[in-house]
Amino acid sequence: MPISLVINAASGSAGAVRPETIRERLAASGLTIACEPDPGLPLRQRLERAAGEHGIGALVVAGGDGTVACAASVLCGSEIPLGLLPLGTMNLLAKDLGLPIDLDGAVAAIGSGVVRRIDVGAVNGEVFLINSVLGMPARLAHHREAQRGRPSLAGLARWTLGLVRHLGRYPRLSVTARIDGQEQRLRVRALAVVNNDYQEAPGRILVRAPLDGGSLTLYVLPRLSPWRLLRLGLGFALGDWRGLPGVERRAVADLTLSAPRRALRVMNDGEARLLASPLRYRILRRALLVMIPPGPEETGQREPP
C-alpha cells in the first residue's frame, strides 16, 4: 500500500539529508508515496493532511523525537501505522524499538511491514512517548529552545551559566502529588513521569522496556548537585542507577500534580511547554501502531487490531 511522507527539515540532522535522497531510498525499497503535504505548512497541519489521505498503508516521518511525538498525537487511537526515519539528535523511540538509526536501515524496516502496538502517555490531553519532565531539566530545555537555530559562543555561554545557576541556588519546585488516591507534598529539583519504565543494562542509556506494559513510572530527584548529576550519569553508563541514593522511583496508575501557580513548565519528549495546573497523567494502552524490523520469529504479517 502507498504511504504518506512528512519530512521535518528543521529537526536534528534531517536538514543534512536532501528530501530527494529520502524519496529515492523509499522508492528503491518498493514504497510508493501517495501524499507529501506542502513543506511550507505548519508541521501538525502537514501531519494531519498526510494521515487523512485515503487508502495509505502508513504515515512515515523523517525527523527527531519532537516530530515523532507530534505524529503520535495525530495517529493515536487510529489504525494507521507510524514509520520512523530517525533523523533527530537523540532518536529515543527509535532506539527503544530497536530501529536502525541509518537511513537505509530505517527505510528497510518500513518496507518490512511489521507492525507493533505500543503505549502512549498523556498529560492534560497532550501525548508523550518517552517521558514528561518537570523541574530543572524543563527549564534548561526552555533556555535551549531560545538558542535553537542561532548558535553562537554568546548563546553557549548563556546556556552554560544557566546550567550552573540551576545546579546551584535555584529553588526547588514544590508540587502536590496525588498518587493512586494518596496526596503527598514534594519539593524536587527534577521529576519525571515515564511511559512504562527504563531498563537497566550497561550501555543501554535510558532505553525503555517493555513499551506496552500499561503503566507509568514516577521518578523523583529531591536534590541534584553537580556531584549527584555526575554519579547519575555514571550510573546510566554502567546500567546501575535506579537504586542510587536520592533517586525515588515508583510505578503509578493514577497521577495528578498541582501547584499554586497557574501553569507549570513541562518537557514532553524533549520539547518544553507551559501546561495549566493541575497536570493529570494517564496511560493510553497500546494506542499507537509503529513499524519495526522483523524479528526471527516474525513472518512479516501485520499484528491484528
Task: List key phrases describing it.
305 residues, alpha+beta, 6-stranded antiparallel β-sheet, 8 helices, 28% helix, disordered C terminus
What is the distance, rounded to the nearest whole angstrom, between the alpha carbons of the first and last residues?
17 Å
Uncertain parts: 142-152, 297-305
How much of the sequence is in beta strands? 25-35%
Q: What does the overall shape look like?
A: globular
What is the string of SSEs from the N terminus onward? EHEHEHEHHEEEHHEEEEHEEEEE
The pLDDT mean sits at 85
Helix/strand structural class:
alpha+beta
What helical percentage do the residues reach?
A: 25-40%
Q: Compute the number of strand runs.
A: 16
Largest sheet properties = 6 strands, antiparallel
> C-alpha Rg, in Å?
20 Å
Helix count equals: 8
Strand order of the largest sheet: 6-5-16-13-8-9
Note down, in words, how this protein is organized.
The chain has helices at residues 19-28, 43-51, 65-75, 92-96, 103-112, 136-147, 153-167, 226-238; strands at residues 3-7, 33-35, 58-63, 82-86, 114-123, 126-128, 131-135, 173-179, 182-188, 190-195, 216-221, 248-252, 255-258, 263-268, 271-276, 279-292. A hairpin with a 2-residue loop joins strand 8 and strand 9 (182-188). The protein is 28% helix and 32% strand. With 305 residues, the protein is α+β, with helices and mostly antiparallel strands. The chain is built from 8 helices and 16 strands. Helix 2 (43-51) packs across helix 3 (65-75) and helix 6 runs antiparallel to helix 7.
